[in-house]
Design goal:
mainly alpha, single chain, about 5% strand, about 70% helix
Length: about 80
């Protein structure tokens, strides 16, 4: 079953990549856990923390922390507009 073997290899690679991404993201998440606000100058980096960290850490011991950090994460210009007096 060549198709099935390819599917299994693809799934294995995806799981490995997920584990690698979590290994890289976990120290970042831990460093940001006590931040009052996380303001990021790059939109794509901000999106990673705000939108994708909760998904990346879903069903893991860090799931709640990822949601908390995401809720406090801003892209720089959004932070300025939303928090200006």
């Amino acid at each position: 079953m060549p198709g099935r073997n390819r599917l299994l290899r693809t799934a294995a690679v995806q799981l490995w990549l997920l584990a690698e991404a979590r290994a890289i993201a976990t120290p970042v998440l831990k460093k940001l856990k006590d931040a009052e606000a996380v303001v990021i100058g790059s939109g794509s980096c901000g999106a990673m923390v705000k939108k994708f960290y909760p998904e990346l850490f879903k069903d893991t011991p860090h799931a709640e922390l990822a949601k908390q950090v995401a809720a406090r994460t801003w892209e720089f210009s959004d932070f300025l507009v939303s928090n200006s007096a």
